[in-house]
Amino acid sequence: MSNYPESLIYFMWPWQVYYRISAQTSAETLFNKLDTGLQPNVFLIGFLKKDRQDRLPICVEPEDIDFKLSEFNALTERAREHFNKHERREMFYSGPGQQEEMHGRLINETLQSALVEILNQSENNNGKISFASKAVMIDDFEVYVILQLDREIYKTHDHLSIERNDQNLKIHTSLLSTVVEVYLEERTRTLYYPNPGKNLSGDSRIADELWREAARTFMYTISSKGKDFYGLHGLFDACNKLSIARYEGEENQGYLIISDKMNVHVELLTTLEAPFNFKEFRRVRKLLQLSNDEIGMVCNTNNVFGLGRISNEYDPALESVFVVRFISIHCWDVLHHGKPILQMRYSLPEFPPETISKSKFFSDAERTFSLATKDDLEHLYDLALTVTNQAKGALLIISNDAQNEAKRLGNQCFPLIPEKLSADTILNLTTIDGGVLIDQHGLVFAYGVILDGVVGKEGDSARGSRYNSAITYHEYKRQISEVMVVIVSEDGSVDVIPNLRPQIKHSEIERIISLFESMVNTTEKNVGNFNQIMEWFQNRRFYLTAEECERINKARIKIEENFGIQNVRIVYDDLMPNSEMNTTYYINEHN
Q1: What is the reported pLDDT for 489?
Q2: pLDDT digits (tens, 9 = 90+) for 464-520
């Protein structure tokens, strides 16, 4: 790519590579805080809308996506099928110009939905679920931003199932689905800038703004359950105001029930003779003072009806009754059938992590144990998840050499005749000091195991003896055997060792290095692009080989020399290879 952008095969506009890097970085910042198992991947796809001999009809960025371009040849036909089946196809709009405007919107909408369908039905989606932004015309191409997330992890965030309300308007099933929508809307907005990608540092809003917007949008799902149009808007801001409202000096710890007034599953215990507006915050706060964990203030987000409770006969599949629980100043949760679906802390959503992420556990265990089957991994995950329920703390040691380890440590544990360990049994075995020793197939060999080892470089003086003994043992044994340790501390924290970094595509690193090297000879001094690519390298420094570090360092020095002396600039240290890095951290791209 020494003569970028001319060297691009699938050329759409000069800044497409930089724009894609910015979109990828933004996605990682946004979704990794929510769940690191989502592993966001972003690419661009453009469809040429004019007859030009100097451009290809379909272009992608980066150029080595998992899909075949031939899969998108049927997009127009697939979109026509979506259009002919669409419920709004026969609607007539009488205002001047409205019919043409709404017809054009529907065509764009069905093109977008057809593209998503092609991506998600493709045999090349590699377990990812895909989403597409709206199309934006750039240099004769209709350009879409495609966001991909791990499908299984995405499904675990679906707390609700109903996607349309009674007025057939789209509502969201999780905060994650709302974050996806907000992210894609933001990418669409940035594509409308002149030369999108040229100004990498200033086009997109920060992650906190997008998370806040997503939470506000998700609250429309909750307010729609009141079935009152006048209460549809403003619930998010109202809850924020109520969370800071005091009553006679006391913080709000009230309990708000949101439902349709006629819902048979909400029993009114005291009914107001004259319901009042939910926006009368002083009156609302006073009534919330009378609520508790059983009895709440009942409203439809427009009017308040009194105090009541949710019936024990309520079927959660109806998704018609929701609760807002106020915890303290600027802290409140939204719950459905007792399960939190949104947690707000100081005007931002909080993302409590899984006790143990299933996708990460599978990834790390699969790379640790060479002979473990998928059934083995499922069983190991169930056992690991079970030990997290041990209130006094626990250790689960998984080793391919468990049989010999049980003999070696026999004087300090209770060796067993090997048998398949069940989730019910393991909780009993962890009630005494020491760990439970099993192999990669889930066979138990000992319990009450006291770990040994030689103190090395790893460890944390701020953590307890259970954590540090596990660290020492793993550092000692990993050189000669395959070992994983699950540590449950008494404070409830859970650690899984090794904590491996996710796998990435090595070809992407090579491509960005080539792009970076091409900046050495460019005449344009774009500090924003330089800093953005350096940030990309910094975020992936663990994965860089010694040769790649050397190439990046040399190119960086030359580019900085070309920039000349500046009053303010970011100073970058030389990148250095990590001794822990090996080829197992690269995705196999040759399958």
Answers
A1: 86
A2: 788 888 889 998 888 899 999 999 988 777 889 998 888 888 988 998 998 888 888
Q: Which residues pair with 494 in a beta bridge?
A: 488
Three-state secondary structure readout of 517-532? HHHHHCCCCCHHHHHH
Q: Which residue, among 20, 121, 18, has the nearest Cα to 78 in the 3D structure?
A: 121
What is the percent of the chain with per-residue pLDDT over 90, rounded to a whole number?
45
**Distance (Å) of CA 473 to CA 21, 226, 334, 459, 496:** 40, 56, 42, 11, 13
- Buried b / exposed e over 422-432, threshold 16 CB at 10 Å, is eeebbbebbee
What does pTM read for this prediction? 0.73
Do 58 and 154 fall within a single domain? yes
CATH number of 493's domain: 3.40.1700.10
Calpha distance 533→513 (Å, rounded): 9
Q: pLDDT (tens digit, 9 = 90+) per residue, 149-197?
A: 988 888 888 778 888 776 667 888 899 999 999 999 999 999 999 889 8
Which structural domain range is residue 441 located in? 358-497
- According to DSSP, the β-strands at 483-488 and 394-399 are antiparallel
- In DSSP terms, 45 is beta-bridged to 60, 144
What values do phi and psi take at 102, rounded to 5?
-70, -30
pLDDT tens digits along 21-79: 889 989 998 998 888 778 899 999 999 999 888 889 999 998 888 899 999 998 989 98
Cα pseudo-dihedral 36, 37, 38, 40, rounded to 10: 60
* SS3 label, residue 3: coil
pLDDT band at residue 395 using 50, 70 and 90 as cut-offs: very high
Name residue 47's beta-bridge partners.
58, 142
| Residue among 323, 357, 358, 355 at smallest CA distance from 342 | 323
Residues 483 and 407 in one domain: yes
Task: Give the count of domains, the chain.
Answer: 4
- Which regions of 432-493 does DSSP assign to beta strands (E)? 435-438, 443-449, 483-488
Whether residue 47 is found in the same domain as residue 194: yes
DSSP 8-state symbol, 506: H
As a whole number, the mean pLDDT across the chain is 87
**Is position 90 within any domain?**
no
In a domain, 190, yes or no: yes
Of 293, 314, 349, which one is at a domain's C-terminal end?
A: 349
